[in-house]
Amino acid sequence: MDAPAIHGALAAAFGDRITGADLAAVSPFAIVEPLAIAEVAAFCKADPALAFDNLMCLSGVDYPKETPPRMEVVYHLFSYRHRHTFALKVQLPRESPAVPSVEGVWAVANWHEREAWDLFGIAFTGHSDLRRILLPDDWEGHPLRKDWQDPEYYNGMHVKPTQQMQERALGGEPIGVGPFDFTPANRSQEEP
Amino acid sequence: MSSTAPWISDWDGDGLDTDEMVVNMGPQHPATHGVLRLELRTDGEVVRAARPHIGYLHRCFEKHAENVDYPGVLPYADRMDYVAAMGNTLGFALTVEKLLGIEPSPYVQTLRVLMAELQRIASHAVAVGTYTMDIGAFTPFLHLLRDREKILDLFEWTCGARLLYNYNWVGGVSHDLPDGFLRATRDMLSEFDSVTFPELLDLIIHNRIFVKRIAGVGVCPRELAIAYDLSGPNLRGSGLAYDLRKDEPYSGYQGYEFEVCVGTGQYGPVGSCFDRNWVRVAEMRESSKIVHQALDRLEKMEKADVHEKVPKRVKPPKGEVYCRSEAPRGQLGYYLVSDGNVNPYRLKVKSPCFTAMSVFHNLAKGMMIADVIALIGSLDIVLGEIDR
Question: Mutating which of B350, B385, B388 best tests the A interface, going by the most A Cβ atoms within 10 A?
Answer without folding.
Answer: B350
